[in-house]
Amino acid sequence: MQVKFMGTAASEGIPNPFCNCKVCTYAREHGGANVRTRASAMVDNHILIDMSPEWSAQLKRENMTAREIDTVLFTHTHPDHFNVGEFVSRTVGFAQNVEFPLHIFGNDCAIKGAFNALDGLQGDRFVFHLIAPYLTYEHEGYKITPTLANHAKMELCYNYLIEKDGKTFFYGLDSGWLPDSTFEFLKGRKIDVAVLECTYAFRDGEKTNNHLNFNSLFAEVALLKELGCLTESSRVITSHVSHSSTLNHDELCKLMDEHDITTAFDGMVLDI
Q1: Band of the pLDDT at 17, cuts 50, 70, 90?
Q2: Which Pfam families does the record cross-reference, listed alphabetically (predicted)?
Q3: 77 with 155: CB under 8 angstroms?
Q4: How far apart are the first and last CA of the chain?
């Protein structure tokens, strides 16, 4: 599998257009990996995980189109992850020569929201999959398992375990300290690459809700190692970065390197 990080920021993006903190100012002045769009990832150019507000611009930045994407996995319906108005551009009269349907996976809020955004225009170009936590769905050669996240209280929020050709990828955005049921499900399952977040940065707390801070990120990695999920050959990536960390990209990399964690940046490609 190959993973491309289309966006790696928390909900405000970096720079936040309304902010002149030192992180946002530094990003405007220095650009590069310091500039982050809202979080989204692509697997093998076929599976899109979440659709950020900058999704179309992210594709243009990477010199990509969406024509190969056949699957979208939604983690939840917060606006920095759920830009479903883009689906209209795939409907009849907007997109020509569409050769296969787009499969949309998510919770009840995501499926209803995506369906309503299309307003009856979907025809045979979209297939909706209402999914339940810890059930594995075999789709286009992949095994896709949604696991419960610790995030919004008004809907079931998912992380995703994706398996193919003996490799396992865990996408753990957005979530605070994972629920006990998720740790139990993951126990003993070797994960080759785990993406975990660090949104709350230096905020206090060891087992934070909604998002991880640095301390809870490091503690969660340690627990996943104890559970046999992460081995010496596994890689841990952090994403969903907020300007509230007070760290620019290089400073964040330095901190994460001390814990053998890779800091994702927009456009980063990872082979699993």
Answers
A1: very high
A2: Lactamase_B_2
A3: yes
A4: 5
User: Does the pLDDT at position 122 exceed 90?
Assistant: no
CA angle 126, 129, 134 (to 5 degrees): 155
d(CA 58, CA 204): 33
Q: How many alpha carbons lie under 13 Å from residue 5 in its C-beta half-sphere?
A: 27
Surface-to-core class of residue 233, CB atoms within 10 Å of its CB (0-12 exposed, 13-18 middle, 19+ buried): exposed
Amino acid at 262: T
Give Cβ neighbours of residue 106 (< 8 Å, ≥ 6 apart): 73, 74, 77, 114, 129, 130, 131, 158
Tokens of 252: 């964040």
Question: Cα 222 to chain center, whole Å?
Answer: 21
- Please tell me the total number of residues recorded for the chain in this structure: 272
pTM > 0.70:
yes
- Sequence-distant (≥ 6) Cβ neighbours of residue 257 within 8 angstroms: none
